[in-house]
Amino acid sequence: MKKESGITPAALLRRPVPKPQDATYMRVFGELNGSRPGGDAFGNIPQQAYESWFNTWEVTNLAEKDRIFMYVKRMDDAFVKHVLEKRAAAMERAKKA
Question: Is-contact 18 26, C-beta < 8 A?
């Protein structure tokens, strides 16, 4: 966008910068993202997907599992909220059209 207009939107100026220690959580979120239900049933990443990921990567430490789940779940909740808000806005626009 900056290339076209020469202006950087305020949202991009305020975007958070990922910290190196957060890379694991972002990777897990990316890997599990495709596990969520799609279409009209769109929702959070299922618990079974987390368990499968932990088993695949042999994560057995309960504290580590809890930490990964907590951070990835927060990202997942924010993502689901964003998608559902976009869908609701699109439906409102469609009603007005």
Answer: yes
